[in-house]
Amino acid sequence: MDKSPFSQVLALLFGGVFIALAFRWSAGSDSSDLMATWLAGHFYGLGEFDQIYPKSDDVFTMLPPEKWGPLLENTPYAGLVFPFVYPPVWAALTSLIPDYQTFRGFAAYVSLVNSTLLAATAILAWRATRSSLNPAVYILIIYFALAFTVAGSVALLENQPQILVSFLIVLTIDRSRAGAQVLAGIALAVAAAIKIYPAFFALFWLATGQKRALATFMITGGALGVFSILLVGWPLHQDFLGQLNAVSNTSLVTAISFNLNPFLIQLCCADQMVMVRPFEVNDTPDPTAAWYYIALPGIWIWAMRLLLLATIAWLLRTMKNSNKQARYAVIWPLATILIALQAPMGWSYYYIPAIAFLPSLIDSLGLRTGTLTILAVTVPLSLPLVPIFNSTKVAPVGLQIVGTLAIGAMALAFYLASRRSRSQVVS
Q1: What distance in Å separates the CA atoms of residue 193 and residue 223, rounded to the nearest whole number?
Q2: Which element (helix H / strand E) includes 306?
Q3: In the predicted model, is pLDDT for residue 287 greater than 70?
Q4: CB 18 within 8 A of CB 119
Q5: Residues 202-253: tens digit of each pLDDT
Q6: CA torsion angle 61 62 63 67 (round to 10)
Q7: Exposed, middle or buried: residue 18 (CB in 10 Å: 0-12, 13-18, 19+)?
Q8: Angle, alpha carbons 162-167-171 (nearest 5°)
Q9: 332 vs 4, more confident
Q10: Can you tell me the distance from the alpha carbon of 277 to that of 40, in angstroms, rounded to the nearest whole number?
Q11: Order of strands across the sheet with 291-295?
């Protein structure tokens, strides 16, 4: 692990350049995902609680509540309008933003924060892996992978909360390896309070014997849950749980839903998918955009749940039987991929934590094989190839097929690296 002052200063310099370029590129974007949180906060502040979550009818169509579109008419906003699918406490906290603060200004601040968090995520990953690569080289690989693929670029343009969640997941891994179990537990609990799926990662502390981290996660998560209920009340939480139920009952097929569910649906049941046109506001730039959904039968839902449980059981056993280096450099990122692939929904930016660990493949597989592997799993996700894959006739949503295969290849690469690394003991 290169700890020379020059290499670390150079890494920080690269981080600063990345923040500046990422902010300049993303500031001023429509930030459609952030707009969903903003609008939820707006209607929470008005006391119109029935306008925070859409009426799902047991399926998730990704269309917003009925008043959201009209509210944005004749405003500068010209992006898509997506629903709010986060715990209601975030709507309540967003409603506290001062009235004088416009969405455009708010989005600019969030763009700066998100650019900084992505830069920090790369540095945390280098520290967690104990990589022998020069830190400047390590983070430069990550910055290129994030900037030129649909994983990091879409997250930045949309000001996706997943950037914060990804930072917290990598912070969890870093602090877990460092023995700072309390901070690891707190970080993972906050991540799970934003997007539920990180809660699965707490189970891995059972395999590694980090009981304090698990206990801290449970206490912090419980406290956040109680705080949320006391702040916004139980009815809104029921609405949120209804949204989660609708999501689990639905396979949503979009260009960036890199997930096993929509992948299989496109292969076997494409003719049964229902097309959804996005809610367009003020001449939305891409009026041809569309996505699909299909209501899943009960046997399919339970089969996927059992597969996820089997995967978690395998990961627990693998972590328990692995040395420290393999566990944190390749098995943890493998776990972040496999769980996101099998979650009810998994978007391209859910794989930011795994991308942050990609350079560790060079340590495990060697310079030539590791570099070629990184290129093999990131090039298919690169922005110049998106129009080509979107126009392919292989499936209704070609990029979804290619993206899921690329993510699957990334998981395979980490798995092969874990097999090679388990015999190497590095603390």
Answers
A1: 11
A2: helix 298-320
A3: no
A4: yes
A5: 999 998 999 999 999 999 999 999 999 999 999 999 999 999 999 999 999 9
A6: 130
A7: buried
A8: 145
A9: 332
A10: 21
A11: 250-253, 291-295, 274-276
Residue burial 223-249, b: 16+ Cβ < 10 Å; e: rest: ebbeebeeebeeebbebbebbeebbbb
Q: Return the closest-CA partner of residue 228 out of 185, 192, 193, 183.
A: 193
HSE (CB half, 13 Å, CA atoms) of 67?
12
Q: Find out whether 15 and 127 touch, Cβ atoms under 8 Å.
A: no
Nearest residue to 141 (alpha-carbon basis) of 325, 357, 353, 351: 357
pTM, two decimal places = 0.94
- Parallel, antiparallel or unpaired: strands 291-295 and 250-253: antiparallel
Using one digit for the tens of pLDDT, what is the confidence trace for 111-140?
A: 999 999 999 999 999 999 999 999 999 999
Instruction: Tell me the residue length of the chain.
Output: 427
Phi-psi domain of 62 (left: phi exceeds 0; alpha: psi -120 through 50; beta: other): left
Structure tokens, 190: 């906050």
| pLDDT mean over 276-303 | 79
Distances in whole angstroms, Cα of residue 149 to Cα of each of 31, 196, 386, 402? 17, 25, 9, 13
Task: Give one DSSP letter per residue of 71-108, joined into a string.
Answer: HHTTSS--S------S-HHHHHHHTTS-TT--HHHHHH
pLDDT of the residue at 105:
86
pLDDT tens for each residue of 372-425: 999 999 999 998 888 888 777 778 888 999 999 999 999 999 999 998 876 554
Instruction: Measure the CA angle with vertex 174, ends 135 and 27; round to 5°.
Output: 70
